[in-house]
Structure formats: C-alpha cells, structure tokens
Amino acid sequence: MTQQKSFSSNLGAIMAAVGSAVGLGNIWRFPYTCGKYGGGAFLIVYICFVFLIGSVLMMSEFVIGRRAQHTPIKAFPALRPDRKGWGLVGLLGIVTSFFILSQYLVLSGWTTGYIWESLSGSLAALGTSAAPISNYFSQFSTGTKPILFLVIFALLGLFIVLGGVQKGIENVSKVLMPVLVVLILVLCVRSLTLPGAVKGVEYLFSPDFSKLTGEGILAALGQALFSLSVGMGIMLVYGSYIPVNDNIFKTAMWITVCDTLIAILAGVAIFPAVFSCGFDPAGGPGLVFCVLPNVFNTMGGAGQVFSTIFFILLMVAALTSAISLLEALTATLCEHTGTRRGIGAGIVFLLTTLLGVVFSLSVGPLSHIKLAGYTLFDFVDRLNSIYLPPLCALLTVIFLGWVMPETEVLDEFTNHGTVGRRFYGVFRFVARYVAPVALIVVMVSGILS
Ligand code: TRP
After folding, report:
1. Which phi and psi (to 5°) does residue 180 adopt?
2. Residues 26-84: pLDDT tens digits?
C-alpha cells in the first residue's frame, strides 16, 4: 500500500521537520557538550559537520523517502527490489526510533515536571546554593512523580498525531516553532543584559582549540547527526510527505540553518547567564536541571518567570520532536498491518510509554538492574547516541551512494532535472565518500572509548 499523505506546502514541510530536529538536543544537550569541549572551537567543528555531513544525510533520507513513498522498512527494497535485505536498514531505523522515543519521554517528563515545579514556586524556594538544587533534582528524577508527567506529555503527543499529518503535525509545528523562537529570544535578551554576560558570549564564540580533543570532534559529529534527527528513518518518513515540487536541497538547507541557529541561540541564552552567576559552563547533563534553576534563583522574583518560560520552551522543543517519532512509528505500523491510524498511534503510544516508565524507574528504584555495567537508561542513552544512529546513517548513505540506481537519485534530487543540478555533484560525492568515512570513524572510536 503506497501512502497518500503529504504536507500541504514547502513551508509546512520545513516547519514540521524543523520541529523534529529542534529538540532537547539543541537546548539541553548542545550547550553542555559545547561547554565541555571548549566552547567556540567545538562550535566551529560542529557547524562544519552539520552542514557538510548532517545536511547530506537529511537530503539522502528525503530522496529515498519521497522516491519510494513508503515507510522505512519497505522504502529500501522498493527502490532496489532485487535487494530485499536492505529492508533491515529500515527496520534498524525503526527500532532505534522506538528506543529514542521511550528515552525521550523520560527527559520530556522531567521537563514537563519542571514547568510545574517552577510555577508552583518549589524551585524558587530552594535558594541559591548548589546542593539543595541538585538534591532536589536527584530526588525528583529518582522518584515516581516523573511518571505522571511522562504520561501527560505522551498523551499530548498522541493527540497531535491523531490529528493527522497536515491538521495535526504540520499545523501544530507552524504555531509552536515561532513560539519557541520568541521564548528563546526573550531568554537571550535577559541573559545578555545580566552583568558580566560578555564572558559567556566570548566563551561561546572565541575558539580555544587547545580544549578541543579528538573526543570533542567525535562528539561534534554525533551531536550533528542527533540534532538533525537523521540516521533513524524519521526524515525518510517526513521525506515521503514532502510535496513533489519542493526542492530537496533547499528544504534540507533551511532545516539545517534553523536547527543550527536555534542551538546557537540556546547557547546565547544559557552561557552568559551561567557565567554571570559564576557557575561552570561544563555542567554536564545537569546544566539544565541543576545549574539553570540556580541561575534563575539568583535573579530574584523575575527568575521564577524566566524559569517557567525556559522549561516551557524545552517542553515545546521536545514535543515537536516526539511527535515526529510517534508519527514515523505509527505510519510504519499502519503500513505493515493495515490497521487504522488511530489504533496504530494508540499501540505505539502504549508501548513507548510503558518502556519509558521502565527507563524512568531505572534512574531510581530499578537502578540496580544493569546491562553491561550501565543502568537501563544509560544503556539506551549510549545505544541511541553512539551506536545505532551512526550505523543506520552509514547504511543509508551507502544505499543512496552505491546501491540505489543513480538515475533515480538524480531524478529525485533535481525534480526531474528542473532544480538543484549545481549541488548534485557535491551531494553525491559527500554521500559516497566523505560521509561514510566520517561515520565509520565515529563508530569505531565510540566503540573503543
Ligand atoms: N533532533 C532531536 C533533538 O535535537 C533529537 C532526535 C534525534 C530526534 N533523533 C530523533 C527527534 C528522531 C525526533 C526524531 O533533540
């Protein structure tokens, strides 16, 4: 069964894909990773990877998805019917998406919970010393409260996906993405006008290459893939919804530019405030949940307002990403089983929420259960960031560059020879040689580290 779903316009496609790309990766993960590996130097390497490799991966997924008009498991064999085994790449992507969504729900639950904690004044009451704030977070995240928020968040996602591709996902993204930009700009203005903010700006934009280690370079590539949501078949599904006349190159470039700008703006919102209050920018995963509440508390009464805005921002970003995962999984399930969309979405919701609850508990009550020495949550986190997406991304570019008939790639990339011919050569070269080598390096060093 081929699908007939599609976004209504190029703008709609861009907004939905930006919604998928802009997520916790931009606002939660990017600033602390950037902080850890030396600020500006990391930023430069990151930008090179995002534009050179990440965007090419996105274009590859778009080409495959739009050409095949199928969800990932059927898309690969549809383009090379004599090589059915490639369906396994689609399957790998779908499995990865399933794990990412379950894990994403845990973090999204914390974020949603922190909107409440912030509104209710519980965070503000913790004062300005670091210990009570970190203790509060460890008690919160290891307790059972996040489960409630996880379920609320997942239900919100479910309702949007039930609305459909255009009326649900596209329309919600068209509203939420501008809201997100406004919220982040408000925080940037606040952060930049704090005393001593300039140090944070310098940190982010003046490169200190001595802090950029080999590990930092790999982290930059991993982050580039993660941030663009490539390497798990999500963009392939969205690609199949891109209207036929849209220019794939331009669409992917717009998404890449927006995603990168929002990551940088998140840095501008966070670093100056962190420096101004005398904290460490390399705060690790706790930067958002431990350092920032402290930063907000030093601002006095208005801090509570900014803190609430910040966690709403984070939740909006997470929600538009979660719906893309939910959509891709639902579409795949429906294509394979022929179930109605509503039922498919319900099943995916139930399964991922259940697994999410298990991951959430693995941070607290179930933390004694270990896989290869990691808690379940940390285990999937490693799987999701180091192993599965680069592997799936690698196989995707190999398929596009070496397996899919070139005439079809060219035809799809250029809309039957009418657009984007100028960039085709570079696109193909990167997809065939540069991206595979870079991805192999990332994976090998990820495994060795
Ligand atoms: N890009 C998302 C972010 O920056 C994270 C992510 C990775 C994702 N893969 C995904 C989101 C797949 C949706 C679908 O947070």
Report:
1. -60, -40
2. 998 898 888 888 888 999 999 999 999 999 999 999 999 999 999 999 999 999 999 99
Pocket of ligand 1 contains residue 324 by CB under 6 Å: yes
Cα–Cα distances in Å, from 258 out to 22, 24, 27, 275, 428?
8, 15, 13, 26, 23
Ligand 1: which atom is nearest the Cα of residue 230? 9
Which atom of ligand 1 lies closest to the CA of 28?
15
Index of the ligand 1 atom closest to the CA of residue 22: 4
Can you read off the two tokens belonging to residue 260?
A: 């990168």
Query: Between helices 301-337 and 171-192, what is the axis angle to 10°?
Result: 150
321 CA distance to ligand 1 middle (Å): 6
pLDDT at 3: 52
DSSP state of 70: S
User: Which residue shows structure tokens 């930023």?
Assistant: 43
CATH fold of 3-448 reads Hydantoin permease (1.10.4160)
pLDDT digits (tens, 9 = 90+) for 267-310: 999 889 888 888 877 666 778 888 888 889 988 778 899 999 99
Per-residue tokens: 432: 């065939």
Say if pTM beats, i.e. exceeds, 0.70: yes
Which of 329, 297, 328 lies closest to 310 in space, CA to CA? Answer: 297
Residue 405's Cα: distance from chain center in Å?
A: 30
Residue from 26, 229, 255 whose mutation best tests the ligand 1 pocket (most atoms within 8 A of CB) = 229
